[in-house]
Design brief:
Elements: H1 4-22, H2 25-45, H3 52-80, E1 96-97, H4 116-131, E2 143-147, H5 154-165, E3 168-173, H6 174-179, H7 185-201, E4 206-211, H8 226-240, E5 251-257, H9 265-269, E6 273-276, H10 282-299, H11 310-316, H12 322-343, H13 351-360, H14 367-380
Parallel strand pairs: 2-5, 2-6, 3-4, 4-5
Antiparallel strand pairs: 1-3
Helix pairs in contact: 1-2, 2-3, 4-5, 7-8, 10-11, 10-12, 12-13
Bound molecules: adenosine-5'-triphosphate and magnesium ion (MG).
């Protein structure tokens, strides 16, 4: 069976991924959008496709990537500063994700493979104080910073943390604060903290997750002094968390960054707990392969063959981030899907498929990067 619709969807998907890899983001965006449209169409029309799960998965993945690319484009255009900046109206709402909010990520610590040290630190610094505040006569630190190489689970584990803690989640990104509301950025920092205090004053635990905190400190040529104003506002707000009995509030600011060295000392000091989210070691890489392959098997008609050597896969993927490993599994699955379109037969994924994929997908981390975190930690690690 040759299905022109599926063929076209895959073509757009392929173009999108290639353009994305080559750094042609406009082209990537355009093609991701077209691919999603077609995949959605297919899922609706072809209820019996064996790849329903796969397509749904791709729709989600591409949507996430589109949002990232759009954010990046936005940040870039405001950083360029050549055009006249339009100050957007100040009616931007702070998104408060209550426990029952449909927009809230559903992940828990169980979905996060490994990273047991990180989980332990987060329990000690956030979850236990929330569960039993009375045990903490001296209060608890309000600022927690997750740092480490890209794609190794910072954003992922922060979402899981909010669920584990049963906390209201207020989620923003540093780049958003700076770029969406240019000229308004410090007001938005104030708005976010005000909202958080409001919820916390009702006695409810709140986690403000500021993803990519380094984005707060990016210099915008178009806005003289903007960066300093935002930073000062932020420092003031952080210090204010301890004022007037606020010390007992269950309000936590969790930041994440893959470039901690861009943060200045004053800023870093407000995050008393700094937790390294490391790249996956061999053992964790084995676990990750098992995890993602299991998801593939659960999600559709494709199964993994008996000759897959997990130990070898882990060995071959030194310096691959957790996300890289996820991509390797997805791309390998794509191989089998592509063959299906040519031969109309679904076959198992084999070790050889993985070896082929690994020739194409290179690791996104290297020793130099890791040593930069090590250097930074010498001065700033906590615990
Ligand atoms: N420990 C893990 N277990 C399961 N999946 C993971 C794990 N770590 C990362 N992933 C997968 O990789 C994706 C990327 O991870 P995430 O976005 O959390 O990375 P990050 O550390 O925030 O990277 P960046 O610094 O680029 O923001 C996640 O959405 C998730 O699918
Ligand atoms: Mg992240």
């Amino acid at each position: 069976m040759y299905d022109p619709l599926e063929e076209r969807a895959r073509l757009y998907a392929k173009r999108a991924v290639m353009a994305d890899r080559a750094g042609n983001y406009d082209e990537a965006l355009d093609n991701y959008k077209r691919a999603i449209e077609l995949f959605q169409h297919i899922v609706r029309l072809r209820a019996d496709t064996p790849f329903r799960g796969v397509y749904t998965d791709l729709i989600n993945k591409y949507s996430v990537r589109i949002r990232q690319l759009e954010r990046m484009a936005q940040a870039l255009s405001s950083a360029g500063g050549r055009e006249v900046q339009v100050v957007q109206s100040n009616d931007v709402n702070v998104e408060v994700l209550d426990l029952d909010s449909p927009n809230r990520p559903k992940v828990t610590f169980n979905d996060v493979v490994g990273l047991n040290e990180v989980k332990r630190s987060l329990k000690r610094s956030v979850i236990y104080p929330i569960k039993a505040p009375d045990l903490y006569a001296l209060g608890w630190p309000k600022g927690v910073m997750l740092y480490g190489p890209p794609g190794c689970g910072k954003t992922f584990i922060a979402a899981a943390l909010a669920n584990e803690a049963g906390a209201v989640l207020i989620k923003v990104s540093g780049a958003d604060i700076m770029s969406k509301w240019l000229g308004e950025a410090e007001k938005n920092v104030a708005r976010i903290f005000r909202k958080a205090r409001e919820v916390a004053s009702e006695g409810r635990p709140v986690i403000v997750f500021i993803d990519e905190v380094d984005g707060l400190l990016r210099i915008y040529s178009s806005e003289v002094g903007g960066e300093a104003r935002v930073k000062n506002q932020f420092l003031t707000e952080m210090d204010g968390l301890y004022d007037k009995g606020g010390g007992r509030q269950l309000l936590f600011i969790v930041g994440a960054t893959n470039k901690p060295w861009l943060l200045d000392v004053g800023f870093i000091r407000r995050f008393q707990k700094r937790i390294y989210v490391p790249p996956p070691d061999k053992e964790l890489r084995t676990e990750l392969f098992k995890h993602f392959i299991k998801k593939v098997e659960e999600g559709g008609a494709v199964k993994a063959g008996g000759n897959i050597n997990y130990d070898k896969l882990a060995e071959l993927t030194e310096n691959y981030s957790s996300h890289d490993i996820e991509v390797v599994v997805m791309e390998t699955l794509n191989r089998v899907i592509e063959e299906y379109f040519e031969s109309n037969r679904v076959r198992e994924i084999t070790m050889e498929d993985f070896e082929e994929t690994l020739k194409e997908i290179k690791p996104s981390i290297d020793e130099i990067l890791i040593s930069k975190y090590r250097e930074w930690a010498k001065n700033y690690a906590s615990e």
